[in-house]
Design goal:
8-stranded parallel β-barrel, binds 4-O-methyl-alpha-D-glucopyranuronic acid, 30% helix, alpha/beta
Length: 856
């Protein structure tokens, strides 16, 4: 074999520059899954990396491979003999073919695809002609980069590389993340601190984390990043800000991630000085054409625009009686000469809908508005459609619009940032949900039509399509919670290959991130796989959606907040029944938006799957599900099951103690403990709400009975005063006690609640349920007969400035010896605007799990 040595010196120089920028960044991709710690196995790889070309992406690929191999070879029991010679060769297929004319280099790799192949013997000796060569060949520059990361993934997950012959290409051309970052540095629906892109109205000086983020994205094949909120600040595309944004694009460019921007469709008026933003006005058209010219002069590989218009208060073409197609095509026309695209969001609905109108239905909106426009969009417009028809709920049916667009490209939008799914405080691994959506068969024209085939463009022969995730990364460890990163990883992997199984992705991520032994990562994989069903169970089962505070935080329980307003997330629970009638026969007709085979299944009570029953039908609480349970019993059971499943996560993680870095172990353990407590808040809120509303007893006698629970409002109170709670279901019995009134500064020094214990003597865990408010760190102490058993600070950052289900928190004091007559006392010391509010204590025998299970 012969080969050329092109540009080796140059590459070394650029590699040194990349290393420098990484070293300067405190927030690195290595803190996520690019740890290159390896499974501790035994594998073989030529340690020296040689790049055949010197383009920026190939340079990044070579740099990353060398770094990964160096780390892995240090961390693992690598077969590494000094006698072993060979190279890992990186290049495009053309370069590889040129350097090694005798190799069978594939000629049909798809764009961005790669080929990994081993040549030569496994243990070639110094001086031998037959040197091992591991080839990483890309169809193009991006393919080289993705091939390098794929090889590293193989190594980090312990695959045998000897003899490898692997080809892969992405299923979808569009694999983007959307950031909802605002120029002031805040992030809409972000739960991981402040923006890595912006601060104080401008792009940040330090963009090293942006480069690191791009590296992380590239490692799972993500090729675009829209960096600002879809509720777009118009000023971001003024000339000054575009100069700044060019730096962001440059930071991401070495990793093949193209920058995109959300734009305000009213920009010509807001920042352009025009009297109108009418999409059909020639002056508006000229303004956008000039603006796009300006952008491409600064950012030649600019990816395009994302547009939210006529939605939730954003301006739009409706102001001029124009359609979304008019607006999308206006921008598409400006972008087209430069190769840019428009992702126009189908998340358009009336948020002032009449809740009394039984025919009104937000779920219908996207299809009603966009389906009639099919075929009217320019070729470089893609409709970005949320996976379900409402808004990232714990469960929704697949949006029927995917089936309704035959002549328009579509991309599926989903959320990595867990807006309605626990805001990263709860472990909820979403890949199983996304996989269900991708695999869902819409049966267009009576033929098998899985959503993933539509997105890939195969079903309707579309040139564009793909997946977009609202990511929400911030400066706090990317996503705040270590295990939440599995969602970002899984998004990228599914966007590359929607055929992957979520449990396989979970195992891959765990192995790379935690590097624990097979038994250990099997435990984490199991936890991840259990987490979405658990969350669905304790929040909103049967397709009721997440029963959260939908007009506020979208976090804790707030069942009635969905009703009596125009936002349209109605579940229509009343004393007789629950669910939204979306049938064609008697309801809003939404079910009829699906192709007939799917519509038929949802339309009929007999065939509608249990998990979506209440999304499509209003039924009495006594209706029997396919499972044989009544609806009301299912509501009770699923909430008790869900809370118990959340408690199981705590135990499973605890079983890994000593096998995971202590800091990470403790961090996740505390989060899971919190989640288990909050799952009980959810459980109790929903169970007591439906118990009161329906008046139907729980067959298992749990609803309304909380053995061991001592209510604060029934205690001997000093300083504390009893409050009626809003919403009532978020406090046990609808009441709690508070030591002063938030949000005004509370002046009380401290308050106490005391009970006399009257149960059996023994050893108990005491769960103290209190409210941890923002803007102040209240302190609590638990005492038995005046002696301190525990004290703690209420210093978590939870939503809401009033005590409610967002901030109801459980602290468990373990192993307390009690005997009848003991005085149990909680002392609360308010701070700032946190009034040390208290709901109850619960005395749980130690023999029982202190998991929220009721004990007798
Ligand atoms: C960016 C939901 C969120 C909003 C978000 C909107 C959207 O309604 O709560 O914060 O706004 O979706 O997707 O545009």
């Amino acid at each position: 074999m012969t080969r050329s040595r092109i540009g080796f010196f140059k590459i070394c120089v650029i590699v040194a520059a990349l290393t420098g920028s990484v070293a300067a960044s405190a927030q690195t991709a290595d803190q996520a899954w690019l740890r290159y710690r390896g499974p501790g196995g035994r594998w073989l790889v030529p340690l020296r990396v040689h790049a055949l070309g010197n383009g920026p992406l190939e340079t990044s690929a070579a740099f990353e491979l060398q770094r990964g191999i160096d780390h892995l070879s240090r961390a693992s029991v690598l077969w590494r003999s000094s006698a072993f010679e060979g190279e890992t060769i990186v290049g495009t297929v053309d370069e590889v073919r040129h350097a090694f004319p005798n190799l069978p280099v594939p000629s049909d790799l798809q764009p961005e695809g790669y080929w990994l192949s081993w040549f030569g013997s496994a243990g070639s000796l110094k001086g031998s002609e037959d040197k091992a060569q591991l080839i990483v060949a890309g169809a193009d520059d991006r393919g080289v980069l993705y091939g390098a990361f794929a090889l590293l993934r193989q190594m980090a997950t312990g695959s045998d590389l000897y003899g490898i012959n692997l080809r892969s290409h992405p299923a979808f051309p569009i694999r983007w993340v959307d950031e909802w970052d605002n120029p002031d540095g805040s992030i809409e629906r972000g739960y991981a601190g402040r923006s890595i892109f912006f601060e104080g109205g401008n792009v940040r000086e330090d963009l090293a984390p942006v480069a690191e983020y791009a590296r992380l994205l590239a490692s799972v094949g993500i090729n675009g990043c829209n960096v600002n909120n879809v509720n777009a600040a118009a000023q971001l595309i003024d000339s000054g800000h575009l100069q700044q944004l060019a730096r962001v694009a440059s930071a991401m460019r070495p990793w093949g991630v193209r920058m995109a921007l959300s734009v305000d469709i009213a920009s010509p008026q807001k920042i352009g000085g025009l009297a109108t933003f009418d999409p059909l006005d020639p002056a508006v058209k000229a303004w956008w054409a000039a603006k796009v010219e300006e952008i491409y002069a600064l950012i030649p590989d600019f990816a395009g625009f994302t547009v939210k218009a006529d939605s939730e208060g954003q301006p739009g073409p409706a102001s001029y009686g124009r359609t979304p197609a008019d607006a999308a095509n206006l921008l598409a026309g400006a972008l087209q000469p430069h190769g840019g695209i428009v992702l126009y969001r189908a998340f358009v609905y009336n948020h002032h809908a009449d809740w009394r109108d039984p025919k009104a239905d937000r779920a219908r909106a996207a299809y009603d508005i966009f389906q009639p426009l099919d075929g009217k969009f320019a070729a470089n417009v893609v409709l970005q459609i949320k996976e379900g028809p409402i808004d990232f709920q714990a469960r929704e049916p697949v949006s029927p619009l995917f089936a309704g667009l035959r002549e328009t490209s579509s991309a599926m939008e989903l959320q990595v940032t867990q807006e309605y799914t626990g805001q990263q405080r709860h472990l909820v691994y979403l890949a199983p949900m996304w996989k269900q959506v991708l695999d869902f068969d819409l049966h267009v024209d009576g033929k098998s039509t899985p959503v993933k085939e539509i997105l890939a463009g195969h079903a309707f022969y579309r040139p564009l399509g793909g997946m977009v995730a609202v990511s929400g990364v911030g400066r706090d460890a990317w996503l705040g919670s270590p295990l939440a990163l599995a969602n970002l990883y899984a998004f990228g992997r599914l966007a590359w290959n929607p055929g992957l199984a979520p449990d396989q992705i979970a195992a891959e991520w765990t192995e790379q991130t935690l590097g624990i032994d097979p038994r250990g990562f099997a435990t984490v994989q199991k936890m991840l796989m259990q987490s979405w069903p658990a969350y669905e169970n304790y929040t909103g089962p049967l397709g009721m959606q997440t029963l959260t505070d939908i007009v506020g935080s979208h976090y804790g329980p707030g069942i009635e907040s969905s009703e009596n307003n125009g936002w349209g997330q109605w579940h229509r629970a009343d004393k007789n029944g629950v669910g939204m009638d979306r049938t064609v026969a008697t309801g809003t007709g939404y079910a009829g938006q699906y192709p007939p085979e799917v519509a038929k299944v949802y339309e009929s009570l007999e065939t509608c799957p249990d998990e979506l029953l209440l999304f499509f039908h209003h039924v009495p609480y006594t209706r029997r599900l396919h499972s044989g349970k009544t609806v009301i019993q299912h509501i009770y059971d699923s909430h008790y099951d869900g809370a118990a499943q959340a408690a199981t996560l705590v135990d499973e993680w605890a079983s890994l103690q000593g096998r995971i870095e202590p800091k990470l172990f403790a961090d996740v353990a505390a989060r899971l403990e919190y989640q288990a407590g909050h799952a009980i808040v959810w459980r109790d809120a929903i169970v007591q709400y439906f118990f009161k509303l329906s008046g139907i007893a729980d067959e298992q006698g749990r609803a309304g009975h909380y053995p061991g629970r001592l209510e604060a409002e029934e205690a001997r109170l000093t300083g504390y005063k009893v409050i009626n709670f809003t919403p009532w279901e978020d406090a046990s019995g609808g009441k709690a006690v508070t030591c002063g009134d938030p949000p005004e500064k509370v002046t009380q020094q401290s308050c106490s609640a005391e009970w006399t214990y009257s149960g059996k003597a023994g050893r108990y865990n005491i769960a103290v349920q209190y409210f941890d408010l923002q803007d102040g760190t209240a302190h609590f102490a638990f005492k038995v007969n005046g002696l301190a058993a525990a004290d703690w600070a209420a210093d978590a950052a939870l939503p809401s400035k009033r005590p409610n289900g967002d901030n109801s928190t459980r602290h468990t004091v373990r192993g307390v010896e009690l005997k009848p007559g003991d005085a149990l006392r909680v002392e609360g010391a308010p701070d700032g605007a946190d009034p040390a509010a208290l709901d109850y204590i619960e005395v749980i025998p130690v023999a029982e799990k202190d998991s929220g299970k009721n004990v007798n």
